[in-house]
Amino acid sequence: MTCRTDFRLAAVLAAALVAGCGESGGTRDGIENLRDQVERGDARAVQLTLEELAAAGTPRTDYAALAGKEALERGDLVAARKWLGDGEFSQETASEGFRLLSKLAYREGNLPAAIEALERARAVAPDDPELWVDVGRLRYNIGNQFAALDAAQKAVELGPDNAAALRFRGHLARDSEGMVPAAEWFARARQAAPRDQEVRLEHAAALLDAGDIPQAIDLLYEEESETPAAHYLKAVAAARSGAFVEAREALDRSGAVRSRTPAARLLSAIIDIERGNLESAAQTLNQLQRLQPDNRRVAELLAYALSRSGGEEELVYRFADQARGPLGSVWLRTLVGRAYEALGDREQAAVFLDLASTPTEALAVLPPTEAQGGAALAKRDAIRARIYAGDFQAGQVAARSFTAEFPNSSDAWALQGDAALAAGDRVGAREAYGKAASIKRSWPLVLRLSAALESEEAARVIAEYAAANPANGHASALAASAYAEAGKWQEAADLFDRALKRGMRGVPWVLAARSVAAGQLGEGQGAAKLDWALEAYEMQRTSLPAITALLDALPPEDRTLRSELQAKLAALSRR
Questions:
Q1: Which residues 6+ apart lie within 8 Å of 567 measured at CB?
Q2: DSSP at 503
Q3: Is 541 helix (H, G, I), strand (E, B) or coil?
Q4: Would you tell me how many other CB atoms lie within 10 Å of the CB of residue 399?
Q5: pTM given for the model
Q6: Cα four-point dihedral sign 193, 196, 202, 207
Q7: How does 522-543 read in b/e, with b if 16+ C-beta sit within 10 Å?
Q8: N or C terminus of the chain: which is more exposed, having fewer CB within 10 Å?
Q9: What is the pLDDT of residues 548-573, one digit of tens each?
Q10: Residue 81 CA from chain centroid, whole number
């Protein structure tokens, strides 16, 4: 009897011990499984695990943050509010829970609640680097961009190996420093999280924009990924490598064109142009141009597609006014001029080809738009309207008031720089542009900044931008020109070559300058110099740089053509 009692007691104790261990281990395993399922985006598995955890008596506070994260990522704000709204989280998940609650409140349009949730997260874990990432993102989204950079730097200080902190710092570097520095930040983020697919793809995208196509391709094919984003980036990489058949296949696999995203539709049009499907390209670009009427890249590509497919009348009708205005690029003016030539109107053709041969000013004030927006947008457009109308003094006063109202906005400082430069206040323009560029160093802003600087300093700023953004052909061309003026011909030739590969092949002055560099370096025993000059002249026969380069490259015995060119040069110079 005693033995039987002992046996029963031992069995009960063992069962209790096993059950207790299983319950504790099961809870831990269930939470970890849930986290993995949320990261994978497996909504069905998440639901099953949540039911199992609830049935096992696991406290709701242990998994509420993870459940809310899954709902938030799925876009179900109602479900996310159910899990996150009461702010009841375990000690281990409190920081993440309040950060998620902040994101939810922001998406619901409740900014004060979003800020309050982040304050609660900071009270729980003030040294959590991912908290400072969220603080920085919120600041950036509401226009407090200088403070966002402070938050990003603090996040990296607290978490030098934290992928989220490094990734966010890369996002800001992409805007303020350029694609090469941004790629370096994403490389560090990838080292911190080598299995994170999103970080790997962002690193590949930055490498593509930094001009390092081979490394980007290696990274994209390092692991076979069938995600739409991976296929889209493979399409971009193939297109930039000149493999347009492969680019089309990858783009089709991405499904991005079906989703009708502007970037994918633009890439599709470029592939069609390169493969000779001009009507399809023109149709796509026409749709895009209606959606994005201020997108100069779309307008130029549409004009090009029309010029190559017999659409000269439509080209002139749609783009003559834009080409004639202050925002008309060399390429667009050339295309309009040639369209007039094809239509037999040589007088109008000469007007636009002359405009194309005249360097455009760095400052081209944007006209007011008809876009609907808030009070800040209305004020911005009112300032633009004053500058555009030539009321520079009033524009400058209004711009200063705008910056005082939004002192942490790089856009406000850029607008103040525009107003100052238009009014002839170069010192004020330099200061305002410098503030704006510390957060957003876009190419148009760099051009404006360079217009406010002395020539040597302007050349340095442009060269720095070109080094940080190798894919920008215009920047490379201007930097090459500065090297040429300094007599550094090899550096100039290298940068001109990069510019020509990055979309500047249709710009006569770049071809002409490449001819001069070839002559200085003795390339091809003089043949390369003549080849480049001929290409520049054929591109635009009224271009002063092209005529000058061809005169310099022609053999002395070619007297007839030389005489014709000298007469043309003299006539054009008198205009």
A1: none
A2: I
A3: coil
A4: 29
A5: 0.81
A6: positive
A7: ebeeeebbbbbbbbbbebbebb
A8: N
A9: 999 999 988 888 888 888 888 888 77
A10: 33
Strand residue runs (E) in 180-235? none
Give the number of other Cβ atoms within 10 Å of residue 222's Cβ.
10
The distance of Cα 148 from the centroid of its chain, to the nearest Å, equals 18
What one-character DSSP code corresponds to residue 501? I
In one letter, which amino acid is 530?
L
Q: Are 216 and 192 contacting, i.e. CB atoms less than 8 angstroms apart?
A: no
CB 111 within 8 A of CB 405: no
CA 492 to chain centre: 26
Q: Are 326 and 365 in contact (CB under 8 A)?
A: yes
Residues 103 and 111: their CA atoms lie apart, in Å, by 10
Q: What is the pLDDT of residues 222-239, one digit of tens each?
A: 877 778 889 999 999 999
Task: Give me the count of residues in the chain.
Answer: 575
Contacts of 65 (CB under 8 A, 6+ apart): 83, 84, 89, 93, 94, 96, 97, 100
DSSP state of 126: T
Alpha helices in 241-329, H assignment, sequence order:
244-254, 262-274, 278-291, 296-308, 312-324
Per-residue confidence (pLDDT) for residue 181, from 0 to 100: 96
The label of the residue with tokens 């060119």 reads 565
Indicate left, alpha or beta for 525 from its phi (over 0: left) and psi (-120 to 50: alpha). left
Q: What is the sign of the dihedral through the CA atoms of 181, 505, 481 and 542?
A: negative
DSSP state of 366: P
